[in-house]
Amino acid sequence: MTGLHERHLAVSPEWLALYYRRPLELTHGEGRHVWDADGNRYLDFFGGILTTMTAHALPEVTKAVAEQAGRLIHSSTLYLNRPMVELAERVASLSGIPDARVFFTTSGTEANDTALLLATAHRGSNQILAMRNSYHGRSFSAVSITGNRSWSTTSLSPLQTLYVHGGVRGRGPYAELSDERFIKACVADLEDLLGHTRGAAALIAEPVQGVGGFTAPPDGLYAAFREVLDRHGILWISDEVQTGWGRTGDHFWGWQAHAASGPPDILTFAKGIGNGMSIGGVVARAEVMNCLDANSISTFGGSPVTMAAGLANLSYLLEHDLQGNARRVGGLLIERLRAVGAASAAVREVRGRGLMIGIELVRPGTDEADPDAAAAVLEAAREGGLLIGKGGGHNTSVLRIAPPLSLTVEEAEEGAAILGEALRAAG
Prior knowledge:
This protein is α/β, with parallel strands linked by helices. It has helices at 3-11, 47-50, 59-71, 82-95, 108-123, 140-144, 179-194, 221-232, 286-289, 304-319, 322-342, 371-383, 409-426, and strands at residues 26-30, 33-36, 41-44, 100-105, 127-131, 160-164, 202-205, 235-239, 266-269, 280-285, 347-353, 356-361, 386-387, 389-391, 398-401.
């Protein structure tokens, strides 16, 4: 155990998880690589939990942060803030939501809290529909709508949460149905659920479930849900904390795979937009955003420094078509990983889109999740020079792969090869 690890244990909560048997201290990064305190170099396929979206130490972002910090670090939302207004204008335009208003927070958890506040205030209801296997943050309200047992730390809640089928395509009672019949069954389940409720405020859903193991429904499910929700006056909140900004390759926002019935009423975002800086936020149409009848501000949301970083990062992403790169290089990486998976009896499924890929592990010859195998592969990948994440539903048995969107073909090939070796070494 290192001295830093001992110090960490002495002052940190027991529930503050660390990866690896020998926890890793990262000291610096560049591009798609990071280095630890011992000088070891790693290819980063997790990006600080999908947060280092463009690249480590991206010059455009570090320059913007340094220049803004040299002028003014903090002011709060009580004062006009040019970088905040400029980033809000760009996010509102990109969101697809008509007459959009933007409120910045410091995290995805806080963004989802704000969305829940808006929805419940607008509808006068504390009833929320959420997806099974979901994750929306670690706050009291966000935990109460999280449909993943591993991350739902209390049953106490300010909200009444009802869970809907559909977030997981490959498991559960509808797994064997065709995509069309799967959607119909999930819609029928939603209709039935609403027949037993009174005036739910909103449905909150991740287009691709992040912590849940990068699972997703067939394209169009949430559009079909939206038709039902609209009849009941229920809002749709799209949690884009992990799927936003082009990570899925095919779309800029995850909701756009379900766009037939229009955009969501509320969209939440965070992680990648700051490229490591603490930015979250909510986009909503004006009628919903302006429904609060009490004062509200944000001390740190919309900080001039984080907004400058977000502007520089978003500009880089758009100017270099990183969404297109996620589609092209991500498609190649998924192909390589499926070939790797086909050679391992422990791999149940390789799924995902763009640079958001999950490898689900099971005990060979069964359909039983194998969290021990996932932990072993995580360790073996690290020994091979690759950092990945893990997640999953009933058990943490999915390897989560989400590199920066500037990943090159050569780095994708290298990472897939290391993962292949890790699967063999752990198996």
